[in-house]
Design goal:
The chain is an alpha/beta fold and 298 residues long. Helix content is 28%, strand content 22%. The protein folds into two domains: 173 residues, Periplasmic binding protein-like II (D-Maltodextrin-Binding Protein, domain 2); 102 residues, 3-Layer(aba) Sandwich (D-Maltodextrin-Binding Protein, domain 2), CATH 3.40.190. The chain contains nine helices and 13 strands. The longest helix is centred in the N-terminal third of the chain and has 12 residues.
Length: 298
C-alpha cells in the first residue's frame, strides 16, 4: 500500500507526490503471501488518521487501485488551477484491501476500484449506496517480460513454454487485475496448465515488480502498467476475444462540497485528456468542473 500527498504550491502547481508516513511497497522477494501481510496492511489503513494528527477538513482522501498511482497525481496536476486550498492525499493499494479499509472506518472521501466487485462488497455491507458509484475508466490486459529478456511470447499460448517458469499476476483470489487475468487464461484453456507457475502479488504493481526484479519470467498486467517501467517491455496485448470487461468504478463516499468538486474534476475534459495520455479509455460523460467554496466549504 502506498500513501502519497499532493500539496498545492503558491503558483498553483502540485508537488511531485512524495510518500507520507510510510511507503509500504510490495517486495518482490517472496512468492507466497503471508496472511499476516494482509492483516498488517488493513491495520495500517485503519490507523491512517493518526499519520497526521493535525489533519483538518482541508484534507481530501482518494483511495485508488494501485494501477492508478501514476495517472491520478497527473490528473490532479492538470486541474490544479481550480484546486481549492486543500491537500489531496492518495492511498494506493489493491482494490480489495482498500474496500476493507473503508469498511473498517478509514477516512476515504473517494474510492476508485479496478473492479465493480469491491464496490458491490461495500454496497452489500451498506457502506455505500448504488447511486454513489459510476463507471470511470477501462483498461486492457497485456503480457510483459523483462526489458533484457532473450525470449518473449507472441501469443498467450507461448507461456506454456519452459522458458516461462514463473508468471506473475495480482492475487487472482481478490486483486482485480489477477481476477481478470485468470478469466482470460480460463477462456483460453490455459489456466489449469499454468496455475502451478503463478506468482501472486498483493496488487498489480507487485506483479510488475516481480518481473522487474527477475523473480518472474512474465506477468499479465494492465496495458497501462506495461508503459510505466523501463525495466520491462510489452510482449503482447491480449486479443479482443480474451479481453475481460475491465471497469474502474468511482465511488463518492460523502456529499460534501470538496468531494463533489473532486468527483467533477475526475470526470472533467481535462482529466479525460490525461487518462487517455496514460492509455486508459474513459467511460464517463464529461462534467462541468467548477471551483467549490473556499475554506468554509465542507
Amino acid at each position: 500500500m502506498r500513501l502519497f500527498i499532493c500539496r498545492r504550491r503558491k503558483n498553483g502547481r502540485l508537488q511531485t507526490p512524495m510518500p507520507s508516513c510510510f511507503d509500504n511497497r510490495p517486495s518482490p522477494g517472496a512468492r507466497s503471501r503471508s496472511p499476516w501481510g494482509l492483516v498488517w496492511i488493513l491495520a495500517i489503513g485503519i490507523l491512517l488518521p493518526s499519520c497526521n494528527r493535525n489533519a483538518d477538513k482541508k484534507n481530501v482522501y482518494i483511495f485508488a487501485a494501485a494501477s492508478l498511482s501514476d495517472v491520478l497525481p497527473a490528473v490532479i496536476d492538470a486541474v490544479a488551477d481550480s484546486l481549492p486550498d486543500r491537500q489531496i492525499r492518495f492511498n494506493f493499494a489493491g482494490s480489495s484491501i482498500l474496500a476493507r479499509q473503508i469498511l473498517a472506518g478509514s477516512p476515504a472521501d473517494v474510492f476508485i476500484s479496478a473492479s465493480p466487485q469491491w464496490v458491490r462488497f461495500l454496497i452489500e455491507k451498506q457502506r455505500v449506496s448504488p447511486d454513489q458509484a459510476a463507471p470511470l475508466l477501462s483498461n486492457r490486459l497485456a503480457v510483459v517480460v523483462r526489458a533484457d529478456a532473450g525470449k518473449r511470447p507472441v501469443q498467450l499460448e507461448d507461456l506454456l513454454q519452459p522458458e516461462f517458469r514463473y508468471i506473475a499476476l495480482g492475487d487472482p483470489e481478490h486483486v482485480p487485475a489477477g481476477m481478470y487475468a485468470r478469466q482470460a487464461l480460463q477462456k483460453a484453456g490455459l489456466w489449469d496448465a499454468l496455475r502451478e507457475r503463478i506468482v501472486s502479488g498483493q496488487d498489480v504493481r507487485a506483479a510488475l515488480s516481480f518481473v522487474e526484479a527477475g523473480e518472474a519470467d512474465a506477468a499479465i498486467v494492465y496495458a497501462t502498467d506495461a508503459r510505466i517501467s523501463p525495466r520491462v517491455r510489452l510482449a503482447l496485448v491480449l486479443p479482443d476475444s480474451l479481453q475481460p470487461e475491465i471497469v474502474y468504478t468511482l465511488v463518492t463516499l460523502n456529499s460534501s462540497a470538496r468531494v463533489r468538486w473532486l468527483s467533477e474534476a475526475l470526470q472533467s475534459e481535462r482529466a479525460a485528456m490525461v487518462y487517455r495520455r496514460f492509455g486508459f479509455r474513459t467511460l464517463f460523460p464529461l462534467k462541468n468542473h467548477s471551483r467549490v467554496p473556499g475554506p468554509q466549504g465542507n
